[in-house]
Specification:
The complex is a heterodimer.
Chain A lengths: L16 H12 L5 H8 L3 H13 L3 E8 L7 E9 L4 H9 L4 E7 L5 E7 L2 H14 L3 E15 L3 E2 L4
Antiparallel strand pairs in A: 2-4, 2-5, 3-4
Helix pairs in contact in A: 2-3
Chain B lengths: L12 H10 L7 H8 L3 H13 L3 E8 L16 E9 L4 H9 L4 E7 L4 E8 L2 H12 L4 E15 L3 E2 L4 H9 L1
Antiparallel strand pairs in B: 2-4, 2-5, 3-4
Helix pairs in contact in B: 1-3, 2-3
The chains are: A alpha+beta, B alpha+beta.
């Protein structure tokens, strides 16, 4: 198999070596043309285009535009962590996930099992959200607010696309 | 280290509309975006270039965490783990610890939080052994008072297209342009 030419695949569940080489080029330029990528890797432009489409439709890889929250009118981002008792944390996580300004929600192994990345237009909105989370959501025992200040690195190369 | 956060460059509704159109497929043609938004293709191209240059927009491939392989060692696509590490530093050691964390390839995002000397690192790791190794390395660093790890067990929601992506470096570069 490793000796044969990379093939076009209709459906894929895992990334192979050819996919990874294509992704490496996309990491340098997410809008690189399929033919340009093909020339660099010694593949046909058609094959590259098909591979990218298959990875996208299979949920394996997606070329996205990640925008800073401020482009969307948000002024601040905080990681809000919730301590939950007497209730499965997943239920609290699902309630938080319904809020539009909540960008991501994870269940973690920590003392605060529900971890949300939450965006706000102003400080008052943040204070209200924190107050609401502890007052209105059953089972929320404690709330920890971690306001993102300076960002030193942000490399979004891997993420839970399947959620 | 800069004493305060540099000014954030201004953006307008057109920047936002372009970001929204590119969000879930960053490879769609600028011609289509231009036609939909009623501007020229050159305008779209110029806006995207400016936003990218300012670190406000990144057009990048994201691999699904369940299918990703170890970026350092290669190998099979067995999935990866995400871990948050919250670090509290001894006084005067924040810069030192930050540099040490930035030197670690496993750290995919790093920010400081609140007014307290708290650093938060997001790590993408191929195995639990790697998670243990990262914690050992961090707890062994000079200037660490406390390091708390949180392993992501389940992701309920994930918006890959919005985040605090502009780094201090991006903003500093912008303000000197």
């Amino acid at each position: 198999m490793s000796e044969s030419k990379p093939q076009r695949r209709l459906r894929s569940t895992a990334l192979d070596e050819t996919d990874h080489r294509i992704i490496e080029v996309l990491a340098r330029d997410g809008r690189a043309q399929s033919t340009t990528i093909g020339e660099e890797l010694g593949l046909s432009g058609n094959l590259v285009a098909n591979r990218i489409r298959a990875m996208d439709s299979g949920g394996l890889m997606r070329v996205v535009a990640v925008a800073d929250h401020r482009i969307h009118g948000y002024r601040m981002v905080a990681r809000i962590r919730l301590q939950v008792t007497g209730r499965p944390p997943i239920e609290v996580a699902q309630e938080m996930a319904l809020r539009e300004d909540v960008l991501s929600v994870h269940i973690t192994s920590g003392r605060y099992p529900v971890s949300c990345l939450y965006a706000f237009h102003n400080a008052r909105e943040m204070l209200e959200a924190v107050r609401n989370a502890s007052a209105d959501i059953p089972g929320v025992e404690d709330v920890d607010v971690e306001l993102v200040n300076n960002v030193y690195r942000y490399i979004p190369a891997v993420g839970p696309l399947g959620t | 280290m800069p004493s305060e956060t540099p000014e954030y460059p201004t953006t307008d509704q057109l920047d936002r509309d372009i970001a929204v159109m590119l969000a879930h497929d960053a490879r769609i043609s600028f011609r289509k975006i231009a036609a939909d938004l009623g501007v020229t293709e050159g305008t779209v191209r110029g806006r995207v270039k400016r936003l990218q240059g300012a670190g406000l927009l990144k057009l990048v491939p994201i691999i699904d965490i369940d299918r990703a392989r170890d970026p350092v060692a290669g190998g099979h696509s067995g999935g990866q783990h995400m871990m948050f590490i919250t670090v509290r530093c001894a006084s005067g050691k924040l810069d030192h610890v930050r540099q040490a964390l930035l030197a670690m390839p496993q750290v995919s995002a790093l920010y400081d939080a609140n007014a307290t000397p708290r650093l938060v690192a997001v790590c993408i790791l191929p195995s639990l052994e790697d998670a243990a190794q990262v914690m050992n390395q961090i707890l062994g660093m000079d200037g660490i008072r406390e390091a708390e790890s949180e392993l992501v067990l389940q992701s309920v929601k994930y918006n890959a297209t919005i985040g605090p992506i502009a780094t201090l470096e991006d903003l500093a570069r912008q303000s000197t342009d």
